[in-house]
Design brief:
The complex is a heterodimer of chains A (375) and B (349). Chain A has 375 residues and is an alpha+beta fold. Chain A has helices spanning 7-23, 26-35, 40-49, 57-70, 72-79, 85-91, 94-105, 223-262, 270-298, 304-334, 338-345, 355-374; strands spanning 111-114, 130-134, 137-148, 155-161, 173-179, 185-189, 201-212, 216-217. Chain A folds into three domains: 7-79, no CATH class; 87-221, Butyryl-CoA Dehydrogenase, subunit A, domain 2; 225-370, Butyryl-CoA Dehydrogenase, subunit A, domain 3 (Up-down Bundle), CATH 1.20.140. Chain A contains twelve helices and eight strands. In chain A, the strands form two sheets. Chain A has a four-stranded mixed beta sheet. In chain A, α4 (57-70) packs across α8 (223-262) and α10 (304-334) packs antiparallel against α12 (355-374). The two termini of chain A are 32 Å apart. Chain B is an alpha+beta fold. Chain B has helices at residues 3-20, 25-31, 35-43, 62-75, 77-94, 99-107, 117-121, 201-210, 213-237, 249-271, 277-300, 314-326, 330-342; strands at residues 112-114, 128-132, 135-143, 150-154, 161-164, 168-172, 185-191, 194-198, 239-240, 243-244. In chain B, the strands form three sheets. In chain B, strands 1-4-5-8 form a four-stranded mixed beta sheet. In chain B, strands 2-3-7-6 form a four-stranded antiparallel beta sheet, with no helix packed on it. The longest helix of chain B has 25 residues, at 213-237. The chains are: A alpha+beta (375), B alpha+beta (349). The interface between A and B is large, with 41 and 42 residues. Bound molecules: flavin-adenine dinucleotide (FAD). Flavin-adenine dinucleotide sits between chains A (112-116, 120-123, 146-148, 193, 201, 347, 350-352, 354, 356-357) and B (238, 240-241, 245, 248, 250-251, 300-301, 303-304, 307). Flavin-adenine dinucleotide (FAD) sits between chains A (112-116, 120-123, 146-148, 193, 201, 347, 350-352, 354, 356-357) and B (238, 240-241, 245, 248, 250-251, 300-301, 303-304, 307).
Chain lengths: 375, 349
């Protein structure tokens, strides 16, 4: 067993750190947070710098971690423009890959994934946005809520109900590529988020939107399965976002304590030392979980139990670290980066499967495995 | 004030808050407490609750005052914090030295910008005011109510605590993590009309902050309650997997336990003896801790909606965190509590 990354991933991390040092700073993070503005320039620069490469998932994972370590709002914005691409990569047709993936892979266009609805996000099978076939098109009606890249994406991978299957709610759902400039498609930006305010979030309203038949991804009725497969991948990346936030909080605690000690202003209380070591330990444990889950995933033998463990644990580590960081740094934390880290971190426990949903998945899988072995 | 009187007062504050704060809570977060609200708080007798009647205050007793802070916080922790600042920071610091200022405070005609950062930061380094003849000039970091007509500030150079009556200019800054309705900003002072409130300014400020135990407890409990009320209402109607959220064990038990803790601490607060320093400190430490946990759970059970300000729950989460930093000295309080328990200085290493 080797716990060290190969050289190319070590270099990818270094390059991402270098990019973050050059392009992200507190002033800028503060400004985009205050204005709730998407950092399009930064996103473009990240592509130009060569750190966004979805063909190389390990390098993407460490890049996300390092950019979120600098700032989550900016880091996520710079790395999320291909959100949902794996659904097309894994289940899309060659034409769809050619037409849609090629333009997001080089950073020219932005995409999003639209699953959650005003009526619910955890209960994916409960969605009500509907598509009906008419004149060779699917006519879509409904609404999607809290969609990242909502007002800036050129297209979305969208989960839509195409059929009611009595007693089987997760059947009859299909995944589509929906261009954002279709008639009847309205996007309303959601402002006033607690954190990750540089990211773009919107409500999408679909009023008789005509989606070409060829934009159906894979087979009709298989959408639920495609989306769950996607979440098993994307949750590893959310774990990386969360680890980045936690590490960024720890960096700032150490910087603060180092400064105070140098200035002779404080003797390091044991309570503070214990907190710092708890945070560092949790970060290390989160990394081990996330890298293990990713290693299964990137070898095409995903382990959803591990992925959910990584996502839930890393997310809770992020909120723990940010909260304790503010407690330790007090006034200087509240006036610096850490108050933003505190606000940003909370989203980790909510999006792409809340902590509660991850725990339900873990328990369900454990019981299933037990039953299989002991039947 | 008897329990019955406290109940009556609580109903009156609630009715007032439903009418004058509830629908404006988000606006207060964005724009601060406006003059109209300030004056209606004053006309109800809430704003100057503890200010002596000779200055136009209502001279309410401690428990009545805590009821006001607590109930206001369930609607807007910022409004409750403002009432707390006026009664428990500004009024005691100004005392009898400036009757006219006290009258204006009680009537809502004027507010006082204050920075507690020097004492809370623990390193007494923020403010430096230069004397030029009889004029004092300089900048004050992070001040609440930065648009105030007056300002209280500590001067690093001579260690005095000043009340500035002219030449106070507020500078708007980022809204900050918490108590956004208090309008946090910085100050530029260029004043020749001021009063020295204390020559040992740092000690005076510390004494005031350390005397906030029960007010902070009331504020923390109101903050917890505001968030829990919202979450409890929400999980009754929000359905996932075709069932209301309240039917799921972890949801119901987390919210019920937090509410049970709230109720236990509230009844402790209602009857606490104001001379019992251990009880006061215990209430503060436990209430702030509850506020942080309860507001986090309340936000979480709102799912994505909890993350958006329109829902009105995320402010409680921010304010609970800010409370422990802006109006409390947690490390100092831990040591105070240890001293209460061990009977001698403990826990300082
Ligand atoms: C900033 C932001 C960006 C987002 N981006 C996207 C995006 O790009 N695409 C997209 O599709 N969605 C997106 N989301 C939506 C997000 O994934 C959902 O908010 C999340 O899945 C939860 O769904 P919900 O908000 O409907 O909460 P609900 O499903 O209503 O859940 C509410 C609460 O109940 C808990 N709960 C639910 N069921 C149970 C149960 N059985 N037992 C115990 N507890 C339970 C949940 O954990 C949660 O705490 C985003 C959300 C935000 C805030």
């Amino acid at each position: 067993m080797d716990f060290d990354f190969p050289e190319d991933i070590v270099n990818a991390r270094k390059k991402a750190q270098e990019f973050a040092r050059k392009e992200i700073n507190s002033e800028m993070a503060k400004k985009y947070d205050r204005l709730e503005k998407f950092p399009e320039e930064l996103r473009k620069k990240a592509f130009e710098y060569g750190i966004i490469d979805y063909q190389n998932p390990w390098s993407m994972l460490v890049t996300i971690e390092e950019l979120c370590r600098a700032d989550a709002g900016l880091g996520i914005s710079a790395t999320v423009s291909l959100f949902g691409a794996e659904v097309i990569m894994l289940f899309g047709s060659d034409e769809q890959k050619q037409k849609y993936l090629s333009m997001v892979q080089n950073g020219d266009k932005i995409m999003g994934l639209a699953v959650t609805e005003p009526g619910g996000g955890s209960d994916v099978a409960g969605i009500t946005t509907r598509a009906v076939e008419k004149d060779g098109k699917y006519i879509v009606n409904g609404a999607k809520m809290f969609i990242t890249n909502g007002t800036i994406a050129d297209f979305f991978v969208m989960l839509i109900r195409t059929e009611e299957v009595e007693g089987k709610r997760h059947h009859g759902l299909s995944a589509f590529i929906v261009d954002s400039d279709l008639p009847g498609f309205t996007k309303n930006k959601l402002s006033g988020k607690l954190g990750v305010r540089a990211t773009n979030t919107a409500e999408l309203i679909l009023d008789n939107v005509p989606v070409p038949k060829e934009n159906l991804i894979g087979e009709p009725g298989k959408g639920f399965y495609y989306i769950m497969t996607f979440f098993n991948i994307s949750r590893a990346y959310v774990a990386a976002q969360a680890i980045g936030i936690a590490q960024g909080a720890l960096d700032r605690i150490l910087e603060h304590l180092n400064r105070l000690t140098k200035e002779g202003k404080t003797a390091l209380a044991e309570e503070v030392q214990f907190l710092a070591s708890d945070i560092a330990t949790r970060i290390e444990a989160s990394r081990l979980l996330a890298y293990k889950a990713a290693s299964y995933l990137f070898q095409f033998r995903p382990n959803p139990t591990l992925t959910s463990m990584a996502k839930a644990y890393a997310s809770e580590t992020a909120t723990f670290a940010a909260e304790k960081a503010l407690e330790i740094t007090g006034y200087s934390g509240i006036t610096g980066d850490l108050e933003r880290f505190f606000r940003d971190s909370k989203i980790m426990e909510i999006w792409e499967g809340t902590s509660e949903i991850e725990k339900l998945i873990i328990a369900r899988n454990l019981l299933k495995e037990y039953a299989e072995v002991n039947q | 004030m008897s329990m019955e009187e406290q109940d009556l007062l609580r109903s009156a504050v609630k009715e007032f808050a439903q009418k004058s704060i509830q629908d404006k809570a988000l606006k207060i977060e964005h724009e601060g407490v406006d003059k109209a609200l300030l004056q209606s708080l004053a006309s109800q007798g809430f704003l100057g609750a503890r200010i002596p009647e000779k200055y136009g205050g209502s001279g309410i007793d401690l428990h009545g005052y805590l009821t006001i802070v607590n109930e206001l916080a369930t609607f807007s922790p910022s409004v409750a914090a403002l009432v707390m600042l006026v009664n428990s920071v500004h009024a005691p610091l100004i005392g009898d030295s400036e009757p006219e200022v006290m009258k204006k405070l009680a009537s809502g005609e004027a507010t006082v910008s204050t920075s507690l950062s020097d004492v809370l930061e623990g390193n007494f380094s923020a403010t430096s005011l230069k004397k030029n003849g009889s004029n004092l000039k300089g900048a004050v970091n992070l001040s609440s109510l930065y648009r105030g007509e007056y300002a209280i500030a500590l001067n690093r150079d001579d260690g005095h605590l000043y009340l500035f009556k002219d030449g106070v200019k507020g500078v708007e800054e980022d809204s900050g993590l918490s108590f956004r309705g208090l309008s946090n900003g910085s100050l530029e002072i260029d004043s020749s009309d001021y009063t020295v409130l204390s020559e040992k300014g740092e000690d005076a400020l510390k004494a005031v902050v350390d005397n906030l135990d029960l007010e902070v407890a009331a504020l923390a409990l109101g903050t917890a309650k505001g968030a829990l009320d919202k979450a409890i209402d929400y999980v009754k109607v929000r359905k996932t997997f075709e069932r209301p959220l309240k039917d799921y064990g972890p949801v119901a038990s987390a919210l019920s336990r937090h509410m049970a803790e709230y109720l236990a601490l509230s009844s402790y607060l209602e009857s606490v003896d104001e001379n019992d320093s251990r009880a006061k400190l215990t209430l503060k430490v436990l209430s702030v801790d509850l506020a942080k946990r309860a507001t986090k759970a309340a936000l979480q059970y709102h799912g994505g909606y909890g993350y958006i300000e329109d829902t009105g729950v995320e402010k409680f989460y921010r304010d609970a965190m800010g409370l422990s930093i802006l109006f409390q000295r947690p490390h100092h309080d831990s040591m105070r509590l240890s001293k209460e328990i061990f009977g001698e200085k403990s826990g300082y290493l």
